[in-house]
Amino acid sequence: RVNNLAAELIGYQRSRLARIGAPVDIMLLSDFRQAPLDYKLYVMLSCCQYDEATLAAVRKQVRDRGATVLWCYAPGFIRDGKADVRNMETLTGFGLQRVSGPSTPVVNVTNLQHPLTATGLQSLSFGAPYELDPLFSVQDPAAEALGVYRDTGRVALAVKQVGRSRSVFCGSHILPPDLLRNLARAAGVHIYSDSGDVLHANDSFVMLHTG
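^ thats the sequence. predicted structure below, dont judge the formating
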């Protein structure tokens, strides 16, 4: 399922990001080491490995500046060439555990009262029907659970204050536009449209495309 994982997490996710109703920039993790960034929301799609320089840059750009960050699937699992779930806690600030054995990364939303899940997620579940291994769940008393894996009931979607930042972890590699839009709105991003149509915008124009 490697091809499915990479395609959904990196490739197809771009089409979902285009439907959140706000402009989106595509960046590399190495861009965090450049001049100070000024984004309200960061969606870390494929940040599965990192080194000390990257860790310092992410902390400076995200935690210290008070942005909102969404950590997807397996953020920071590999550090300096070594795979360990403890590496993920260092990067994300979440206490995490590896789910035993392969299971489907389908997330059932369990808290529809929170601003991040209260709008557009009435279907209650999202994710992929095929099994993946590894998967990771939140085991952190300081985090607020928003959703669980359908197969195991372990926390798959949670939010936590880390430093000055609002951090969100999602164990699924498929992120619905409604969830991303809720995150953007809560982070203070201007939402031009909540229709789910493709939208692009910059300083000069706004483009809305619908089938």
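The two ends are 31 Å apart (CA to CA).
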